[in-house]
Design a protein that fits this description.
By secondary structure, this protein is mostly helical. It has helices at residues 4-22, 29-51. The protein is elongated.
Length: 56
């Protein structure tokens, strides 16, 4: 099972990766869509990790 600490860490890493990728000079629609999805999944994992009650 994924622990609360790992969910928070992976969420933060995906959010930072999405922000870094968004600053690259690749101007295509798919690039911005991909970085938005990456940032969104990272934010979702971060919120799940923070609001999780047990540590399992």
């Amino acid at each position: 099972m994924i622990t609360k600490k790992r969910l928070i860490l992976v969420g933060l890493l995906l959010m930072v990766g999405g922000l870094v990728a968004a600053t690259l000079t690749i101007d295509t629609t798919w690039h911005y869509f991909g970085t938005g999805v990456e940032f969104g999944i990272g934010a979702m994992l971060l919120i799940i990790g923070i609001t999780r009650k047990n540590n399992e």
